[in-house]
Each structure stands twice: as C-alpha cells, then as structure tokens.
C-alpha cells in the first residue's frame, strides 16, 4: 500500500493501472476508520482491481460552530486498517492541496440539500456544498470507476448520486448498508464523543426507527409511524433535531406509505455527539427495510 499526499503523485500512481484498463474503486473518508469504512473498503477490494481510499477531514463541510478542530484523527491506525482491508493507495492531501490560495469554486446540488441535515436549523445547505465540492474534486483527481458510500449518510448518498448524474461523472455510485454495534447504534467516527451514559441512550435512534418501521402499513399515515418513533425516543430521553418521512430518492415529504420507498431519517444530539440514522421502508412491504 502506498500513501500519497499530492494530486500529481496520485495521478502518477494511477497512470499505469488506468493504461492497463484496470478498474479503480474509490472510498472517500475523513479517517478515524471503523467497521463501516472497512466494509466499504472490503467491497471495493472485492469488486475493483485497484482500491483508493481518500483520507481528508474536509473543512468546507463543517460549519463555524462545528467539531472540525476536535474531529477524531488517528493516521497510523487508519493506515494499518486500510492496508488490512486491501487498500492499494491512500490519498491523504494537506488542506492547501485541496483548497489552494485563491480557491473560489463550489459545487451545489439544489432541492435536495436544504432539508433534513441541510435545513438551516440543522447543519445548513453549506454542509452539503462542502461535501459535493470535495467529492467532485476527488472524482476528478482519482477518476474512479466506482465510488462507495454508506447508507448511514442517506441524504449525502442521494445528493452525491444527483451530482454525479448531473455533472456526467463516469462513475458508478455504490451505497452500502449501515454497519451497527450489537445494540443497533450505527457506527460513526463521532460515537467517540459519547460519554458512557450517553452511549447507553444512543441506540434509541435505531430502536425508534424500528418502532416506526413496525407501525408502517400500506396506506397508513407516516405521522403515525413517526409518533411511534417519538415515543421510543422520549422513553430514552432523546430529543430529535429532526425525525421525518421523505421520498427516498427525491427527499420530498411523504404523508402516507404510498408504494414508493420511504426514507425515515433522524438526527439527534446525544451528549457530545450529533448522531444520525435512517431506515428505508420498501414499497408494498412496509416494515421491511433496506440498508438498516
Ligand atoms: O462521509 C464522509 O466521511 C464525508 O462526507 C466524505 C464523503 C468523505 C466527504 O468529505
């Protein structure tokens, strides 16, 4: 496994595999790897000839009051885990390599980025502008055939799919299931912020989504499923930042389970960690879920 820090070195390292027609898989990360990242890396390793992992804590997707400075980092451990998972090349650029002096461009997907995590009362659309800008740059510099993302960040996956289609990036977007602790808590680098008492409350997000999925029936009001989820959260003392039912692709609000996949998405501050989770209620089979 090689580690490179510049675009020039990255392109240089990928020139021969590209000439030989090998397939390149990209797993974009902000490091502090966990089993969720590892499952993406292993998928890429199984399905592509060359696996590139980017490791970059992207300042553009953090708001002014957010956790950029304290975002957990452990480069040595990340490199060991990446090597074990079959990564061939790590691209770990310094900030000035990605955003050099004078950088003035942003990639913005409208319509999907102003809701849920993009609501101005949550992280705001600037968060997704930061994500799409850096991912577009990674697609341009790596030139992957396939790029892998986790279903835990459901909205991010929807937004990136839209961006890739709209901007004609010749890349296939693969979204893989959320990896969970035994008690249902979705793995996230930010779980490192949970104090023991908060860690005990944190699985309530997954339990709440399970209660909502159980309450879902064809033709039933999504408000009833959301009410079931709210009861579980209340018992655990968790106040959601949002808890919403939306069309799983268009992210429009959904009033009834209506034969299209419905995304039930939640965000909540639990102690020091802002956690997100989601479940997709499949059409005509409410209660059955994808990626959860
Ligand atoms: O999901 C993440 O870790 C980040 O949003 C990503 C896709 C690596 C972009 O910085």
What does this protein structure show overall?
The protein is α/β, with parallel strands linked by helices and 292 residues long. It folds into 2 domains: 2-176, Rossmann fold, CATH 3.40.50; 189-290, 2-Layer Sandwich (Pantoate--beta-alanine Ligase, Chain: A,domain 2), CATH 3.30.1300.10. It is 35% helix and 19% strand. The protein has helices at residues 7-19, 35-47, 75-84, 95-98, 125-142, 154-166, 196-201, 204-215, 222-235, and strands at residues 2-4, 24-29, 50-55, 89-91, 146-150, 172-176, 240-247, 262-270, 273-281, 289-290. The strands form 2 sheets. A 6-stranded parallel sheet has the order 1-4-3-2-5-6, with helices on both faces. Strands 7-8-9-10 form a 4-stranded antiparallel sheet.
Outline the secondary-structure elements:
Elements: E1 2-4, H1 7-19, E2 24-29, H2 35-47, E3 50-55, H3 75-84, E4 89-91, H4 95-98, H5 125-142, E5 146-150, H6 154-166, E6 172-176, H7 196-201, H8 204-215, H9 222-235, E7 240-247, E8 262-270, E9 273-281, E10 289-290
Parallel strand pairs: 1-4, 2-3, 2-5, 3-4, 5-6
Antiparallel strand pairs: 7-8, 8-9, 9-10
Helix pairs in contact: 5-6, 8-9
This protein binds pantoate.
The site of pantoate has 10 residues, from β2 and α5.
For the sheet with most strands, the description reads: 6 strands, parallel
In order across it, which strands form the biggest sheet?
1-4-3-2-5-6
Report the structural category: alpha/beta
Q: How many discrete structural domains?
A: 2
Distance between the termini: 32 Å
Corresponding CATH architecture of the largest domain: 3-Layer(aba) Sandwich
